[in-house]
Q: What sequence folds into this?
């Protein structure tokens, strides 16, 4: 059986959990207390050089890192990743957008906001993250105004990837109310079979509010 | 024939040009003067909602954005992207790493440095970018100490993607001399057949030093 190294408040971990739930695929969870330094142990760094979760491990010990790459691997052969080369590239396109725009905008700002780090950041840093977040949602709003999902292939791992943090922008202090097309898309994602609604707040981990090692 | 919408000083554009040169595949270039505002025209925004280059356009008008997604599409069926599902995911893993760590570290810092924007950034912003750049190169150094290329599949689009900016870290004020394994890997990439060595400085575009619209 596959093993997922995970940190429950992580929405990057959630991306993979959501897909696994859609696929109804069983897996073992091993929790990594990243704020307590467990991501930086020699043993974990052998699995992943960044020290970040999630990490997927196969029965034979082979590992795969980066949430979006894990989604691609697990979705292969399912409706969540098309087989056509052009369509696959369109799915990948939104996952690369997520990795750049969302990770460094909404995801980062949400993390600061929910763990109390915002008070330790300068106005300039916060303004840059807010500008990136608004830019991201503006791009998504315009795109989704005329579309059901991010690509023409129905609900795919592109939607799962972008949904993880974009749907929680309010927790980064960016309300979704000015973005009705994004809100409608969030509703369509939440209506999918085997949607996973379990959210773990940072407060379950008393180390979360510290800086990462 | 395929068309590449490109901005010559962009190393994201260079990634695609490098692969096309390796493949010896002919293409049409259409230049987009992004700093002059051409990325924000209604016509170009219909091709790409971010307004960024590169954009790939097929004969029938279909478009693909995000340099890493374009690499995946163009490399399909070649030695630059393996067909095995697990191996493909390992290639994707480094491309997602690039999109997050490198785009927001070395690439961003290099852009500020080469276009004179560094003087307009706070010490805190610059320190954060430098820390991300050093972290990235430290991860790559450790990884490449025992490897020829980023994955076990030989030279792939993972190497092309990471090479584009990581090889130019010195232009971001981060010398590569403390990273001998990275330097050796840079040499191995440069030794590949049909390596593309043409670099276009920002100075070819008199608008480059302005802020993006």
A:
């Amino acid at each position: 059986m596959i093993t997922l190294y995970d940190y429950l408040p992580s929405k990057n971990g959630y991306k993979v959990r959501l897909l696994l739930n859609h696929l109804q695929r069983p897996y073992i969870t091993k929790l990594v207390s990243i704020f307590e330094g467990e991501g930086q142990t020699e043993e974990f760094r052998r699995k992943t050089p960044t020290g970040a979760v999630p990490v997927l491990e196969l029965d034979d010990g082979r590992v795969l890192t980066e949430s979006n790459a894990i989604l691609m691997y697990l979705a292969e052969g399912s409706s969540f990743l098309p087989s056509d080369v052009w369509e696959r590239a369109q799915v990948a396109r939104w996952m690369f957008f997520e990795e750049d725009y969302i990770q460094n905008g909404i995801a980062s700002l949400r993390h600061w906001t929910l763990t109390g780090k915002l008070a330790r950041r300068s106005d300039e840093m916060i303004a840059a993250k807010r500008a990136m977040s608004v830019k991201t949602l503006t791009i998504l709003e315009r795109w989704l105004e005329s579309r059901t999902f991010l690509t023409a292939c129905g609900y795919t791992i592109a939607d799962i990837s972008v949904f993880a943090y974009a749907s929680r922008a309010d927790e980064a202090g960016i309300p979704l109310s000015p973005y009705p097309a994004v809100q409608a898309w969030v509703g369509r994602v939440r209506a999918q079979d085997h949607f996973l609604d379990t959210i773990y707040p940072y407060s379950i981990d008393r180390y979360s509010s510290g800086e990462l090692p």
User: Anything to note?
Assistant: The beta strands of chain B are 3-6, 28-31, 55-57, 63-65. The domain at 3-79+200-204 of chain B is CATH 3.40.30.10 (Glutaredoxin).
